[in-house]
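so i finally got all the pieces together for this one. its two components total, 296 residues if u count the protein bits. some of the lines might not be protein, just check the labels. i wanna see the whole assembly predicted at once instead of chain by chain like last time, that was a mess tbh
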Amino acid sequence: MDILLGVGGSELSYQALEETLDRVQQTGDTLTVAIFDNEEISEEMETIRQRVEATLQETDFEAEIRELDGRSPGSALVSLAEEEGFDRIVLGGGERSTLGKIQLGSIVEFVLLNAQTPVTLIR
Amino acid sequence: MTREYPDEPADEFPRPPRTVTDREGRAVTIDPADMGDHDGVLEMYLSFDPADRAQGIPPANESAIENWLETILGDDTFNVVAHHDDSVVGHATLVPDRNGEYELAIFVLQSFQGAGIGTNLVETLLGLGQAEGLGKVWLTVERWNDPAIALYRKVGFETTTTESFEIEMSIRL
């Protein structure tokens, strides 16, 4: 299976990276990591790239890293998955406030509602 | 991201303790609460209908509820509970976020819903917040939860963002 994982720089997105790596090492799926600037986090693209590369190196797993540009990372992720025939999109999401309420961000919502590709949300 | 708030502060809200009569004629007292009210509040959440959970709270099992109560009844939080016949039938809480603003949540036991207790709980909690000098209060609510959204609007909350599954609303005290 060809898996497209979106990483926008939130802690949950890095957790999703680690969990996905655990999984693909067992299944032999191929993984592409799409990194993007999530305006709710505003982490530099380069910082995200370095952290993703470091995690890949630690696990000794080869995955291509792609940068998503533009103002709508959700839309870019959905388009990439369709144009290149990925089998599944994976995203981390569902931040908890101090009070404990789970909130899904606008990128996650866009992908869940608009993707033609099956989506796995890791929370 | 900076959260937006109404320019004008809200009017003065009633402060606890209060006794109100709900639309079914039941006398309900609304009192300030803290960790000392833990047992009664726990009892209410243990009998909570899972279908009435929202955005992951209250948690599903007792140990998770216990952990959660440590946070929402803990230091720096503000709480009110609604009592009827010595049982807790409603609870509202203000929990500080990282920016010194307060997130509000409210829960009313199923058999006491739709009788005006929620509105009284929220108003009285905001009155407590005013007495304590709090400035900014916000909440999120699921977009399809029309009764809750109507309640918050009536009390004076204004919608700030609607671009995800949850609507965010805020009020200035």
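Chain A has a mean pLDDT of 95.
The first strand of chain A starts at residue 2 and ends at 7.
anyway lmk what u think
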